[in-house]
Amino acid sequence: MVRTFISIDLPDNIKDDIYEIGKNLDTDGIKLVEHDNLHLTLKFTGEISQLKIDEIIQNLSKIRFKPFRLKIQGVGAFPTEKNARIVWIGAKGYILPLVDLIETELERLKFKRDEKFHPHITIARIKKQNSDIKNKIEKFLVDNHNLDIGSVLVDNFRLKKSILTGKGPTYETIKEFKME
Q1: Where do the H-state alpha helices sit in the chain?
Q2: What is the pTM for the complete model shown?
């Protein structure tokens, strides 16, 4: 079984900017996402077999989509800003129609549709809660409310696998799907 997800990878210059901003959260109890692991998840497909991977590749290969620009802007937290477990930077653009096509193809393979998709790039995971951490997150969200990193041209999406190691996850591309 392989742990998989579908994502948009980001260019290094955008990852550099995101990682630098995320360093403002670096403290005991908050785990920053490693520079190389920054990405925008379109769909988490979970632990699946090689057969299911092959089926996903076959179905996602049917998708036809034009390249588009994605704006990297804004910040937020899940599940709420007051009780953050994840801190993220937002992404805006013509992404929801692409996600809908991906969801439709995966529904044919009996994957459940995500009804509450919110485009974002996870930059930190909160490992423990205390007033200092809550204050740090609140300050970060206020200070970066109008954050605008820029835009990227999205001309592909990828099926990736997550390999869990003692130092955290590493991600490898299984298949890249080009847009035209």
Answers
A1: 12-22, 50-60, 96-107, 131-143
A2: 0.93
* C-beta separation of 43 from 103 below 8 A: yes
Q: For the chain, first and last CA: distance in Å?
A: 32
How many folded domains does the chain comprise? 1
Active-site residue (options: 35, 118, 120, 145): 120
Per annotation, catalytic residue among 35, 39, 118, 145: 39
> pLDDT of 10-24, one tens digit each?
999 999 999 999 999
118 belongs to the catalytic site:
no
Tokens of 110: 């009996």
Q: Does the pLDDT at position 145 exceed 90?
A: yes
Distances (CA, A) of 21 to 40, 121, 132: 16, 12, 19
CATH of the domain at 137: 3.90.1140.10
What does DSSP assign to residue 23? G
Neighbour-count burial for 145-177, b at 16+ CB within 10 Å, e otherwise: eebebebbebeebbbbbeeeeeeeeebeeeeeb
Is residue 35 part of the annotated active site? The answer reads no
The whole domain housing 28 covers 2-178
Residue that is written with structure tokens 């809908």 in the block: 100
| Calpha distance 138→140 (Å, rounded) | 5
Decide: 5 and 43 in contact? Cβ < 8 Å. Answer: yes
